[in-house]
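I am writing to request your help with a piece of structural work I have in hand. Here, with my thanks, is the record as I have it:
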Amino acid sequence: MTTLLKELRAAGVVRAQTPKADNGPLHKIEAAYSQYLAQERGLCQDTLANYLPIVRSFLAKRFGEGPIRLDELRPPDITRFILRHVRTISPGRARLMVTALRSFLRFLRLRGEIATDLAGAVPTAPNWRLATVPKFLEPTEVERLLNSCDQSTITGQRDHTILLLLARLGLRASEVVGLTLEDIHWEAGEIIVRGKGARQDRLPLPRDVGEALVGYLRDGRPRCSAREVFIRSKAPRRGFAHSITISTIVKRAVERAGLHPTLKGAHLLRHSLATGMLRRGASLAEIGEVLRHRLPNTTEIYAKVDLEALRALAPPWPRGAA
């Protein structure tokens, strides 16, 4: 209903309501912090969408309906907030919370809103590197996933193209959402990928991905003024608002294909690409280059799926040991 009202108001059928300006102190703080993250830190909208609700909740819990006096923040305020939530959230969400709070408190110190650097007062969430094994699909399962899309429909054609980009190039969900028509360089056979921290990379366009893009752009993509490659299947005709949509597309394809991985988001195909490369003899450095990891140690976790190499490192079991 909300989307319909927006379209009717844009067409002049329904009188648009004048939105009430939110000039409250909380809104001003959020706006300034959001601008700092986007312009000075170069973070993407997905990061802002993760950080801002945490900051909003923290300030609301600390100051309630009263005035927001940032200079009154103290270390116990931070500890109480984290302890209140950490018992009911996942370890990953806990790490996100402490990261967002540290970032916000550094921002306040930078602006002179607080006299003490409170970022050091944020407790550390447990984060054991390489503690898990990447979840992935076997090559035959990836093909089942791709074939689950009904390409005779516009939505199926679009989703198949998205899944190919994830499976063949290892793109992140946010990178698929941000892909524009200007990012495809047909003559050079490559695409521009806008990744984390405003980073831009040129990636070769595999033949099957290029053919899928051509088919979707020619026959499936709705006519609209939006410059994003992938467009919503329902009005209003525009690009996806959030990378969660890409993970939802992957999840639905997983279910259609009758697969049951523990991870069902967009990163499943990124992990599957890396694992397949490793099994075909690619080095960790080569995998890191394809996945565009900024730090080499980010790729180290994929060594855990190379079971044959790990068996060679394992010492023989002592004879006679029980």
About this structure: The mean pLDDT is 84. Residues 169 and 290 are 7 Å apart (CA to CA). Residues 91-110 form the longest helix (20 residues).
